[in-house]
């Protein structure tokens, strides 16, 4: 493969003059059909002539009655004037009835119109009508047929005797038999075509069904395409199939979401092009502007003259959604040496459309996740800025809560909401006076009342965000107590939202395990004692149990400086199902 883009120029040279797929495909199919039909016609004529030769036990010549020309002259017949016979057969053009075009005792020439064939073809053969006793009886017939009397007599001696009327009737019956055979062949051909069409439609529907079954936001466009490529290559019978995905962002975002920053090519089978070549080709074809597929079946001469003589045919389409261009599909070489047509192009287009919509949704989701990440980062930074001593508290509580929830059997999707809840649980502290938050000594009752307002303040701050309904409840209730002595609503036991109960334990542990302005961090033994004592009083006993199961991991979270889980926020936006 030439590393430069130049070779693709040859592919590009084959851009159709019009973007009209139908016209292009049909033109290709038309040329294909023309040759094929000609072959079918010749085979058809040969089979009809063979039938008459079997019935009459004599070779038949093939005449074009309309043009008055002999198309095939049998070698084992006397050298007769077949061009004259062809001219005499003219009345048979369009006829369905056999005729004796020559009747010159003791010879006649039987002519049979080959019905339904494109040319006005007539099969003709001389028949002997009696065995004359005298050589002189051959002179008139010899003159009429254009050969010598001796030759004619010598040939006639080896022939069956036919009554002219009987010969005509037999010819008519053979003609009808031939007609029925051809009709049966037509029905079989139509059945095959219908069956092929139905199986194409079935394959397309089942391919699209398989694809749509895999349309989930959790599945990246590359993952979906990987599944689609194998299925599609099999259905459209392409030797090679490539799908180039264009980059969606210039750089990878800091928070670790998976973002494509350079073109990536997926391919199956024998696909000879690099990502750069497909990109250059797609741009030169202006596929995105065409809005539909291009199909190109090359003649052997065109293929030989190109830089890639092994590329016999190709088709391509852009993967788009609205104004957004996500990539290019390119299929090369029909696997069975056949041609790409409308059926294959439609399938390629349908799959490209689904991938385009899926990529569009993923991109929209990515942008929303970006926005949410930015907002949440800004909010948590604002809390940290107010109280440098608790820096990183929100992130640690979030990760401890996730670890506890894992122990309690939460699903992966639900964990993302737990993480978000932990991150935002103290958001209401934005409304608390800095002097109170940073006060080194014991708080007065009035100051503590102000602190106690942060859950409801946080709930109000998030109140407009409908997508965060479950998170808001955690923010409001993370200071409730299992025995009902917490705030702001004095909820008890299982009336407290489950994630709020988890965050309460995570929050208490991190507060005790961190150094605060007014005290040093507590030793682990002391924290464990407090938690054990508070189980069933301040905290949900099941969550305290989970703490002891996951204690080693949780201690590590507190020790670690790591901020930001790599899975956030790519999945944090989604609500648990
Ligand atoms: Fe709090
Ligand atoms: Fe807190």
Keywords for this entry:
single chain, alpha+beta, Beta-Lactamase, Hypothetical protein af1432, 10 strands, rod-shaped, disordered C terminus, binds fe (ii) ion
Helix content: 40-55%
Distance between the termini: 49 Å
The helix-and-strand class reads alpha+beta
* Average of the residue pLDDT scores: 82
Number of strands: 10
Multimeric organization:
single chain
CATH class of the largest domain: Mainly Alpha
**Main sheet: strands, sense, barrel:** 5 strands, antiparallel
Task: Please indicate the count of domains.
Answer: 3
Instruction: Name the CATH homologous superfamily of the largest domain.
Output: Hypothetical protein af1432
Low-confidence stretches: 1-34, 253-257, 562-577
Report the principal-axis shape. Answer: rod-shaped
Q: If you consult CATH, what is the topology of the largest domain?
A: Hypothetical protein af1432
């Amino acid at each position: 493969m030439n590393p430069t883009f130049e070779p693709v120029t040859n592919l590009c040279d084959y851009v159709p003059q019009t973007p009209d797929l139908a016209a292009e495909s049909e033109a290709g199919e038309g040329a294909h059909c023309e040759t094929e039909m000609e072959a079918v016609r010749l085979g058809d004529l040969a089979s009809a002539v063979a039938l008459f030769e079997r019935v009459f036990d004599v070779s038949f010549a093939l005449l074009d009655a309309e043009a008055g020309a002999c198309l095939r002259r049998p070698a084992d017949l006397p050298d007769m004037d077949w061009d004259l016979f062809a001219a005499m057969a003219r009345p048979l053009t369009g006829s369905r009835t056999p005729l004796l075009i020559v009747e010159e005792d003791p010879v006649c020439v039987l002519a049979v119109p080959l019905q339904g064939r494109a040319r006005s073809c007539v099969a003709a053969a001389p028949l002997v009508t009696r065995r004359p006793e005298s050589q002189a009886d051959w002179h008139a017939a010899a003159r009429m047929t254009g050969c010598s009397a001796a030759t004619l007599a010598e040939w006639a001696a080896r022939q069956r005797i036919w009554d002219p009327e009987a010969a005509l009737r037999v010819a008519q019956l053979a003609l009808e038999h031939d007609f029925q055979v051809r009709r049966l062949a037509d029905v079989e051909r139509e059945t095959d075509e219908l069956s092929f069409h139905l199986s194409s439609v079935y394959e397309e529907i089942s391919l699209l069904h398989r694809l749509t079954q895999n349309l989930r936001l959790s599945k990246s466009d590359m993952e979906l395409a990987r599944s689609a490529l194998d299925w599609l290559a099999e259905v459209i019978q392409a030797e090679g199939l490539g799908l180039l995905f264009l980059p969606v962002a210039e750089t990878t975002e800091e928070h670790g979401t998976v973002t494509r920053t350079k073109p990536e090519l997926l391919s199956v089978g024998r696909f000879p092009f690099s990502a750069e070549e497909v990109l250059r080709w797609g741009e030169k074809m202006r596929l995105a502007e065409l809005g539909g597929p291009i199909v190109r079946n090359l003649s052997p001469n065109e293929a030989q003259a190109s830089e890639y003589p092994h590329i016999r045919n190709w088709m391509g389409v852009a993967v788009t959604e609205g104004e957004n261009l996500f990539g290019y599909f390119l299929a090369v070489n029909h696997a069975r040496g056949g041609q790409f047509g409308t059926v294959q192009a439609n399938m390629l287009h349908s799959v490209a459309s689904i991938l385009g919509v899926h990529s569009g949704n993923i991109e929209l989701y990515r942008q929303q996740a970006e926005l949410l990440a930015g907002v949440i980062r800004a909010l948590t930074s604002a809390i940290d800025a107010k109280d440098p001593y608790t820096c990183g508290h929100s992130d640690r509580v979030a990760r401890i809560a996730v670890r506890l929830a894992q122990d309690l059997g939460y699903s992966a999707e639900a964990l993302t909401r737990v993480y978000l809840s932990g991150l935002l649980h103290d958001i209401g502290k934005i409304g608390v006076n800095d002097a109170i938050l940073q006060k080194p000594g014991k708080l007065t009752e009035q100051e503590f009342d102000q602190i106690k307002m942060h859950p409801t303040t946080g709930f109000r701050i998030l109140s407009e965000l409908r997508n965060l309904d479950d998170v808001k409840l955690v923010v409001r209730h993370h200071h409730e107590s299992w025995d009902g002595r917490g705030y702001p609503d004095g909820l008890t036991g299982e009336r407290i939202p489950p994630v709020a109960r988890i965050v309460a334990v995570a929050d208490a542990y991190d507060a005790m395990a961190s150094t605060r302005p007014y005290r040093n961090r507590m030793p682990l033994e002391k924290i464990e004692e407090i938690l054990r004592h508070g189980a069933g009083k301040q905290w949900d006993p099941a969550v305290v149990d989970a703490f002891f199961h996951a204690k080693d991991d949780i201690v590590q979270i507190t020790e670690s400086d790591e901020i930001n889980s790599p899975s956030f926020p790519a999945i944090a936006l989604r609500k648990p199902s």
